[in-house]
Amino acid sequence: MKLKNLLLGAVALTTLGGLSVSAQAQTEIQWWHAMGGANGERIDRMAAEFNASQDEYVVVPTFKGNYTETMTAAVAAFRANAQPHIVQVFEVGTATMMAAEGAVYPISELMEDAGEPFDINDYLPAVVSYYETVDGDLLSMPFNSSTPVLWYNQDAFNAAGIDAPPATWDEMKVAAEKIVAAGYDCGFSFGWQSWVMIENFSAWTDAPIGTLENGYAGLETRLTFNTDALKNRLNTIYEWSKDDLFKYGGRRGDSLSMFTNGECGMWMNSSAYYGSMVAQADFEFNQAMLPLDTDAAAAPQNSIIGGATLWVLRGAEEQDYVGVAKFMNYISSAEVQAWWGQETGYVPITTAGYDLSQEQGFYAENPGTDVAIKQLTLNTPTANSRGLRFGNFVQIRDIINEEMEEIWAGTKTADQALDDAVERGNELLAKFERANK
Amino acid sequence: MLKRVHFGTSVLPYLLLAPQIIVTLVFFIWPASQALYQSLLIEDAFGLSSEFVWFENFENLVSDKTYLNSFQRTAMFSFSVAFIAMSTALVLASMADRVIKGALTYRTLLIWPYAVAPVIAGALWVFMFDPTLGIFVYALKAIGYEWNHKLNGNEAMFLVVVASAWKQVAYNFLFFIAAMQSIPKSLIEAAAIDGAGPVKRFFSIIFPLITPTTFFLLVVNVVYAFFDTFGVVHAITQGGPAKATEILVYKVFYDGFVGLDLGGSAAQSVILMAIVIVLTVIQFRYIEKKVEYT
Description:
The structure holds 2 protein chains of 2 kinds.
Chain A: H1 2-24, E1 27-33, H2 37-53, E2 57-63, H3 67-79, E3 86-90, H4 94-99, H5 107-114, H6 125-128, E4 141-146, E5 148-153, H7 154-160, H8 169-181, E6 186-190, H9 193-204, H10 211-214, H11 228-241, H12 256-260, E7 264-270, H13 274-280, E8 285-288, E9 306-312, H14 318-331, H15 334-344, H16 351-359, H17 362-365, H18 371-376, H19 393-409, H20 414-436
Parallel strand pairs in A: 1-2, 1-3, 6-7
Antiparallel strand pairs in A: 3-9, 4-9, 5-7, 5-8
Chain B: H1 12-38, E1 41-43, E2 50-52, H2 56-62, H3 65-98, H4 103-111, H5 118-128, H6 135-142, H7 153-181, H8 185-193, H9 198-209, H10 211-227, H11 230-236, H12 248-258, H13 262-290
Antiparallel strand pairs in B: 1-2
Helix pairs in contact in B: 1-13, 2-13, 3-7, 3-10, 5-7, 5-11, 7-10, 8-9, 10-13, 12-13
């Protein structure tokens, strides 16, 4: 493969190049990221290849721990005036970063100042809309983005006699019943439940989860997801859990093993689990779009992304930012995006990257891998489905997790739990508004 | 005529004191003053907009249900840790005090856990009680008990209490055994001649005579449970599930470093500072004076 050779060459070049760095006085660009393991190595390769492609700038990637730790490190560094040029921040940190107007260098502005070519229309609308201002300026560069999909066990479907993956929640029930009847422990499970069952459920049915365009239009936003549609849905799922149609398996990706060891026939979570599925599942698996709640909407809208973006921090030498801009353009190139998407299961952030993957035949060879991108681009994002922008959202997600766990434990009805989650979440939003006004 | 003794002023004593004073200033007084100042501010994470608000952060804490819950939880946690750590150490020390052969070996082994860092201690316990891998969970399953401290708050609390107490037993043991060995042998021998058995001797002679140590350790243990157990909690439960193990010192970390609410977090640490000052005053003012060998 051509790209592979390129990368190998790049690694060799940087190893040699390392010796001449000091002699040539190249400009160093610090990049703090939160990707450990295999993805961390991919980041190193990306930087190495960029460094080899030109000799003015050297991008230095540094692993700073998980998303929260990386963000905290960057905030602390900024306060001490020792911030990196680029920092990777997860999507729920967007409001916090955005509120720090003097600290961040919006991508649109950066590209213009540096004189680098940049057209926001090259990027997938569902991806960039999460990080746009109301005026259409891009704040941070999407890097790793995914969206929740319905993973299903094809062997279980065959055993249970299910022809097609369920497209609605009514069909979910039928499918789950058949799977349990076929001898499986549970019908379906899900992870990242705030993201999948609240944030994406609402976007998919084109319903808001908060006032002021999900927080895009101002800090005075408040949560409103305690709707009848969502209460009914979660109450129903709790009822189903009594017959094992649904089983709760913990936060984040904790329930992955329930799917990969064949306990549950279906699993709703990020498309970026593709790599783990390939490694862990010894059955035939596939992905489908999220089921639609037909009581809440007649047709699906589009799902919203999760993942992280690269934020540029102010405070360095002006000439450094030219290098930063060049690097941003480099990672958005079709080649890099196609490679990154195929390796990780994240969606390519540009249309060109998607097209290239298609040309290379990746989606045809690996059926289901384009579900995420199709789901994201199903319709033009509305104010309800382009994303959300709430301060203190890391803690609000914890609150939602706690309240939803009360539903699954049977200690609260969904009505009570959602009302409480909204009330507790709004206290944090008020606090954020207070601190940032 | 008495000759007045006069020492010439010299910089030497000041120089000798300087390192200690500088360390105290840089690592204790300066951060503490920063925390005090920060607790009166409300500011965004990056410190771009900051507003002096007097005691608003403290008012918020008083009306914050999760903070008051955390306070209660911490009180319960601290006293459980202190009680378990001290009673276990007391039993072990009274046993070790009577051992003649191999006493040094016993003592060394019992003191060992004190050298283990809190995070490592946490990691050890997390391994033993991991719901899918843990050896103890395996054993509990054999007798029909489903252990899962990731979902069950009481089990999580039990685990952090035991892990924290385990680490502190060694320290308490050291003090108890030293106190016991300083009791004159003649007293115990006299009691033995009068016909008092080991249990009687313990409760009538040894235990009353070591009360100063017991009270000292009580304060030290409560302080330990309040402030030094962060590593254990962070390694075992991260405050979860559903805040069941979120003690005050962990909440300071969570609100400050995860939530980036620096003012609120600083206000909490100021309250913790006040608590440790009160405990120290009690220690020096009352306990040292009131408890006497009688």
